[in-house]
Amino acid sequence: MLWLTAAAAGLFLWAAASDVATRRIPNRLTAALALVGLVRLAADLAAGGGWTDPALDLAAAAAVLVLGAAGFAAGVLGGGDVKLAAAAALWLGAGALAPFLMVSALAGGLLALAYLALGILRRGSERPLPSLPYGVALAAGGLVATLHLG
Fold first, then answer.
1. 58-79 pLDDT per residue, tens
2. Is 7 exposed, middle or buried, given 0-12, 13-18 or 19+ CB atoms closer than 10 A?
3. What angle do CA 102, 108, 146 make, to 5 degrees?
4. How far apart are CA 145 and CA 5, in angstroms?
5. Residue 107 to residue 104: CA distance in whole angstroms
C-alpha cells in the first residue's frame, strides 16, 4: 500500500499547487484520487476485511460530497474543493475523516488569516486579492491524515 500512499500524497501536492497557480483543481486529479481510494477499498476487501469498513468509507465520502455540495450551493466552497474533499474522504476512509477535516479547517483558518494580513498590507492597491485557494487547506489535511495512516 506504500505506492497508494505515495500516489495520494503526490495528488494532494498537485491539488495545492494547481489551486494556488490557477484557482482550479482539475477533474482528472480528483478522479485519480478517488480511484486511489477505490483501489484501497478493493485491497482491503481482497485482504478479507469484510464489507463493513468499505461501506462506512463509501458512506463517509458520500456525506462529505453532499455537505460540500451544500457549501457550493451557498457559495462558500468551489466545485473543485468539494470534489477534492470527497475524493480525499474516499481515500482516507471514515476512520481518518475527523483528523482530515480538523487539519483542513485549521489550515484554512491560517490561510484566511494570511490572506487578511496580505489584504491589509495591500490596502490601496488597485487589484483585489484573488480568491482564497482552499484546496491548499484540504491538501494539507489530506497530507497529514495520509502520513498519519502510512
1. 999 999 999 999 999 999 999 9
2. middle
3. 50
4. 10
5. 5
- In tens, the pLDDT along 129-150 reads 778 999 999 999 999 999 987 5
Whose cell is 483501489? That residue is 39
List, as one string, the DSSP characters of 4-49: HHHHHHHHHHHHHHHHHHHS---HHHHHHHHHHHHHHHHHHHHTT-
The angle at the Cα of 89, spanning 84 to 94, to the nearest 5 degrees, equals 170
* C-beta neighbour count of 123 within 10 angstroms: 6
Burial bucket for residue 2 (CB in 10 Å: 0-12, 13-18, 19+): exposed
**Residue 96 DSSP class:** G
